[in-house]
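Catalogue entry: protein
Contents: sequence, fold tokens
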Amino acid sequence: MRTLPGVTDERTARLAWARLAEPLDSVATALIDSFGFLGALDIVRRGGVGPSGKVVDRFTARLDTLSIERDAEILDRLGARVLVPGEPEWPTALDDLEVPPWALWVRGPLEVTDLADRSVAIVGARASTAYGNHVSAEIAAGTAARGFTVVSGAAFGIDAAAHRAALAVEASTVAVLAGGVDRPYPSAHSELLREIARAGAVISEVPPGSAPTRSRFLARNRLIAALATGTVVIEAGLRSGARHTLNAAVRLGRPVAAVPGPVTSMVSAGCHQAIREQLAVLVTDAAEVIDLLGQIGTEDLAPAKRGPTRVEDDLDPVTRQVWGTLAPFRSKSVEEVTVQAGLSAGEVLGALGELQGRGLAELRLDGWGRA
């Protein structure tokens, strides 16, 4: 029978499970749901039988290399910390997930306790366009300047544009990784992740040293959706990680927004579909995102968008109708205006007097025209 040095309570058992099993592993989840973290670990250690009646041997290979003490030493060298549910800094928004992470590794000074109170997840295509990168940066900078923490996945494209924009306005940003907090991915973003770790936080549900894999990326997406107040998708294909994050946010009941792109662009097809299916609200700038995610009855309300103001906007219908018949460079008689406007001579004369008083019309030697 194997011994597990360092595993003494539920906290250390959670750390052990994060090392033994993949996030969302169905066998591990069933064991833990039935027997608790320590009990489930004991069954694995003894080679016992799980809830299905089968011997649990899935985790044997990793059990042989498990070392809680070694992981603690690595954590100290990184200057990182590990959180579990119930601790003061644990982000309780993660408890809304069907399968919350067993633990969370955090690198950086930002406390992640209340991220869901005022934060925005900005996700999108890796192979983004210049338009998508511009919109991502504008929304990230605009929301960050209003006190929102920007949450994303540090990937190429939309994610990177959002992180960099938040850093540019000296705001908080959080990168949620699919690998360990010491495994920058993509490697080209090593410096970006160092900047995020200096000013915000780099987060992962897998222990240091863990490599990013496809299944871990998919599991990571649910954390991005859960940590933030709401999610904004900028450029996403019909089948994409960003669309997966959007769906996770919808399942959680979080507000979801999508930025439209050209109707011919396949990189925006997932956004258009989400808007059409009423899974996401159409947004075009930071003000509209803040309106969606901010507090009701505060300055978070977006200003109404209006077209350009025209001089005739404040005119009554009859005066506006007469104004429409006048020309700037050609004079017209009252009779001509009467015919063209379809009004009586009295109505036309009254309207012309009103327009003249406003400085919009003038009486010339040969008739009336716009001033």
